[in-house]
Structures are given as structure tokens and as C-alpha cells.
Amino acid sequence: MSTTRVAVVGGGIGGLTAAGLLAKEGHAVTLFEGGASLGGKAQAVTVDGVTLDTGPTLLTLPDLVRGTFEQLGALDLMPPLTELEPQCSYRFGDGCAFTAYKDMDRTADSAADVKPVERRGIRGFYAEAAAIWGAAGEPYLEAPFEGMAGFMGRVARRGIGAVMAGMQLSSLHGLAVKHLRTEHLQQYVGRFATYAGASPYEASAAFALIPHIERAYGVHHARGGVGALVNALGQAVRRLGVTVHLQTRARFAHTRDGYRVGPGEDAASFDSVVVNADPMESLSRGEEPLALSGFVLLLEVEGRPALPHHAVLFGRDYRREFDELFSGQLASDPTVYFCNPSATDATMAPPGRTGLFVMVNAPPLPVDAAEADVATRAWELQAEQVKAQMFEKLVAHFPELKGRVRVIGQRSPVDLAAQGAPGGSIYGFLPHGKLGPFRRPRIRGNTPGLFFAGGGTHPGGGVPLVMLSGRFAAEMASVHLRRGE
Question: Max CA-CA distance within the chain?
């Protein structure tokens, strides 16, 4: 029996997962990556001994991550995970603060410090978030999304209550207002829409399953950062026999006998293709609105100031911030997120120094080519404006940073677009509306034997879900190859 040949186009986490699993099944797998290194958006840089991720900075669902490495026969390669407690510090424009913990009692105590009534409110919110996870989240992650009929069948197996709960979902902001009385805690809930590059005022309350996942399963740091996790995946797939071509931009074309994949005239024949790239254009959906992009600063700090591992510094008017972003403008008072990995992992920076990943949301570049060109040139000036805003907010909340910070790198929507993200959008598809998550591009492509993996397809962004997309893509490709569909 001849060996089946599979091409994986794109070496992000989803593509690496799919490639490794397909090779483990005995298929001959060739992976093409256009960049000089594997990882896609999950890159890391080291400058003068300071290592920082430039993409994802945290892990949830650790059992899914470990399970993926176990399936690849690579648990020996997986970096150790450290669970964070507290999980994240939230600071508000009026000086209030809130801290999220895995421990529900500590989270409730912190909410009560904002306003006593919020002790009950935050518990009520998390109880409903857990119900949403059970009713809709688990069914959504159980299997590839192939249509509402299959999904609703999985929901129905959980009882009529699950079906009714799903039909009654409002927006994420609506769910926050239902339980929480202060704008501070409503902002906290709304922040989780940005995990998909969306607005809390337009995204489904289903995104409440994200804070539930963080509380129920923990927030984790991989030793060495997400970049170390990518390196481990790269070692795993090579050990399984995957042929890896870096700096090779491959195209794919459907033929009568399968696919031609490769760079130009050097394309070769394959029986199936997994594409680890945003699928919108391939599926003729390139004109649809895009999720948010971001602007990232990589900072070196003199000394080891007592900063949390994760922190969010909110702007004063959250609704205005999203109105500005989705009208194509930079936020006048942006929310700033930072990750300080050396707070947990001494390997991330030399003694006496600290590295900070700092990010604000930004609109994606316009879809129209001429408008995108104008927006690209504008970023040369806008970057300086955004930097000033970010530094101002950092120092306002953490005065000890003043005079101790230098920039060692930055990433704008222009840089993300150069990496292949449509319009520099981090997540591609914009999941606004009650049924937004179900309009996400599916893993199965529009020609036989074509499958997608990555944050732009089902089930969505974040390291564990991207791994899951790679697992689903590998399973579906294997079924296709066995059946010869």
C-alpha cells in the first residue's frame, strides 16, 4: 500500500499539531513555513538576555496542552507549566483595583473591595458563566463544528435546560450588567471579548466561558514562555519524521488527483492539505469585517520591580474605546495589558532586569488596498502617539517604572499583516452577534481533502484552542485519506 502524502502549509501551533499527529499515523508529512522560524504569531525574541513572547502570553486548559504533547509522544519535550495565583491584576482610571484568583472566595473578597454588593454579583456571574460552559462551551469543543444540527445535537444531550440557556444568551456586556453594579467589574467581564478581538457590546455572552475556564482550570505560564512551547512542538514533529521547509512560501491548488503544493514550479503532489493560515480569503470571505489588531511594545526594565505577572490597566470609558476602535481609530484612552513573565520565571530575564510585554488594542488595516496603504504609512507617526499613551498609563499605575524602561522591540498591525494576518487582525474573523461564534470559518475546506487549522478557524484563538483545531484537522484529514473521499 502506497504512503499517503500530506502537506501542511504554515508552521504555527495548529499546523505543527496537525503535522505531528498525521505523521504519527504513518502519513508522509511535509510542512512549509514562510518565515525563518516556526510558531506563526507565537514568536519569541531575546534581546540582551531578556526573552519575551510577541504573541500569546498565557495558557489555559492545561490538560488539553498536555494531552496534545502526549498524543505526539512528546511529554518529555514539554516545558513545565506553573499555575499563577493571583491570575491577573486589574487597575481602573479612578484608582480602584480588582484581582482575579482561581480561588473564588479571594475573587469575591476583591470584588467586595470595589463595592460590597459585588461580592454577590461576581459569584452570580461566575455561576452563570459555568452554566454557559456546560451548556454551550463543552459541546462547542467536543467535535469540529460542521453545522448547527450537529452542535445542537450535542447541546440537547445535556438536557432541555442547556438548549434554553443557549437561546437566552445576550451580549457579554448584557450579562455583566445583569450581575454586576459597578462599571469597574462590568469592564472586567467585557475584557474577555478581546480574547477574540471583539467588542463586549456586540459579542455573545457565550464568551463568559473564558473567565470560567481561567477560574476552573487555572492560568498557566510555560517555563521559557510560549516560545519554548513552540520549540518543543518543532522538536516533536521533526522527531516524528515531518519534513520541515522554512522560508518557503507555498501555494496550493486542487487537482483531479489531489493537490499541488509548494513554491511555484517546485510544487509537488499531495493527497491532502492542512492550511495553518487565516481561511477568510480562501473561502471567499475576504470582504467581511475583521477582528481587532494590536500594538505591542517589548520593554526592558532596570531592576526587578514588584509587578504582577499579568495586569490590565483600563481606560476610563470602555464603550467609547470600542466605538473608536471599530470606527477605524486608535483609542483616545486605551486599555493597556502587560505581561511580566520574570515575576514567575527567572529564566526569562537576567538578574537585576525585567522584561515586559505591553499591548493595546488597535483597529485592523482597511480591507481596501488603497486605504490599507494609507493606513500603513500612517502607523509611522501613530506608533509614537501610542507609545506615549502606553508609557503614561504604565507610570501612572506603577510610578517605580519611571526612568527605568527602554524599548527593545515593537509590533504594529503592519508587522502582523506582513506575517500573513489579514489586515494585521490577530484573530481574523470578527465574531459579533448572538450567533457570531457559529459563523467562524470551519475546519473543512471547500474542496475535498482541504482542511484549516489555527486561530482563524474553529474553535478559535488561544494556544489550547489552536492546538485543538490542529487535532481536529488531523482527524478529519485522516478520515478523508482512509475513505479516499
Answer: 69
